[in-house]
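URGENT: need a sanity check before tomorrow's submission.

F., can you look over the Reverse transcriptase domain-containing protein record below? I want to be sure the sequence and structure line up before it goes out.
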Amino acid sequence: KFNTDLQDPSIWERYAVEVKNHFEALDLETQHVESGKKMKICLVESAEKTIERVKRCKRKPWISDEVLLLAEKKAKLRKKRHVSEELYEEYKRLKREVQRKCRRDKEEWIAEQCKELEEAHQKGNTWKLFQKLRSLSKKPRMNQSSIKDANGLVLTETQDTKEYLINLFKKLVGKQVTEALTLDKEELEPEPIIREVQNVIVQLKCRKAPGVDEIPAELLKASGEFGVSMFHQLCCRIWKSVQWPEEWFLKGGDSTDCNNYRTISLISHASKVLLTIIVNCLKNKIVWELPESQAGSQAGRGTRDMLVNLQLLIEKILDVNSEGIVIFIDYTKAFDSASHPQLFSVLITMGFPKHLVALLQSMYSKQQACVCWNNERSDWFPIEKRVRQGCIASPGPFNIYSEQIVREAEVEQTGVVIFATQMDSDVAETQQKLDRVADASARRCIQINAKNPKDMLIAKAQREIVIRARQEWIEQVESFRYPSSQKTNNGDCTKEINSRIAMAKAKTQELDPIWKDFHISKRTKIYLLKSTVWSVLLYGVESWILKVVHERRIRSTEMSWLRGILRVSRLQKIKNEVIRKQLGQEITLLQKIQERRLQRFGHISRMDPERIPHMAIHTKVQGMKNRGRPRIHWIDTVKNDIQQKGLKMNKAVKLVQDRKFGRILLTSGLASIQETTYRL
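Structure tokens as predicted:
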């Protein structure tokens, strides 16, 4: 690949001049297929003349040439080591010397990497900083050497393995006949303007793997106004003809169980320009069609909302001594099973512009894939089923596809429906709804995975419930990780908190060379601690209900990390306040959790009353409360946080309607709000 991580602007200027020269001699008045090839040749040849390609480095970057020469001598002597005692002693000496110098080279390499990491942080180069961080903490990756076939037999020969994988994936993306859409003049959408193409090229993410055309996003951005003009002409030709260049077609490549494999897509960056324009045209219609309960790939809705919603629902059900049944549904290779004819039929039925659907259909109709095994590629074969994984145009249409399944299942809104999760209180009614969802999914060529679905009974008095999916009994669980957060049937957050602390500690151990190195400043270590370790622990904290024992453990864990940065033992009996002062740490981890919780409260308070998070807080569940002290609820922890800021609940709700005052409330409290109001 090309070395696009260049700091010399003169190289990019020479590249832009080469693109201009090629563009002036380019004839784009040919067919769109030839235009795509000419555009690729223009960019690649311009890059070949001005930009070097990246040279592959050694497997172990710290091994010096001196060590390699010694290793060769040791390897030659190894065959003769039993000839005489002198040769055996010489072999052992060389072996010790190779090991010693390898350790020395590795220590020097780590020190050099840490210095570069520190320099990157001082210059604000976050990409290089985390790249060095990954190189220092990367786990060894084991290459898969064998797999099992359908009968459980291990395949060791490369050719047998490739043939089996080809047959497997051909079956997965089985051939289906898709009729091309015919367009009338009245159904044509307006062509994209040059400003749209320019904005999309500017927004392309850098340092991403290129597709089979080997054109990275950096080359597109550096092509200048002539490159933008070339892309605009090509996009307009594709828009009119509804035919994509072959260079832009999807090329998908793929433990021993093949069912655990997933197809991945290396998509051409050039095709992302037109795909982004198509997605922007479809966006408003997709948002209109999707319900409030669909949070996947939707702006303003996310997993944190779903976690808070589920926590609030569990609390309300238990508070009135009621019952609720939660079904966690999992589809078998949902993206790979989506039927192309049915997908495009659903889009047309829901009223999406026929021209845009025809563009997507044309792109999918000629896509191909191959199997990559031990750096060897198989022959290319066509794909007539599946939604492209990794494509920016996939989430929206697939959400529409899944929404059509829910509509056909006719799941009434008697309970609370969340995507991939259904809550109800009656076993028979829940079974009927699940059967309707399974039947509707099967009609759309998607099957429910009978092994992965779980059901969870939310009730104080637990009992066994029997629910089946595809005639298979669904396992009843007390807790479930949804999504990436442990939720229990009693609303307790202890399991999730312990799990998050353990995951954060594991991340800390991965970065042990960083904490021990004296070439990295304390300031950089604190930055890495917050960006890599704290981020793991803080996922989903908005829905936590912290007890005193939880706060103690979180505080203890945080201090152990800070002491590790200073290389200070607890036996030295240095106070926590002194440790924080030395590191300049004023905000604690518990204060950060409180800030995240109040942010979520302010976000929910500003929502429309018809939004699910807002309804989950204010909706009451029918039933009688138990005698005795009530449980601590999520809203109780929020009230406690607000009281610590010197406010009452009704006053805080009014203040957070303004984002500015809400932000001040989170950081400083009532005194700062009054001071800001006085200044205004």
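My own read: The radius of gyration is 30 Å. Confidence is low (pLDDT under 50) at residues 253-257, 412-422, 675-680. If you see anything odd, call me.
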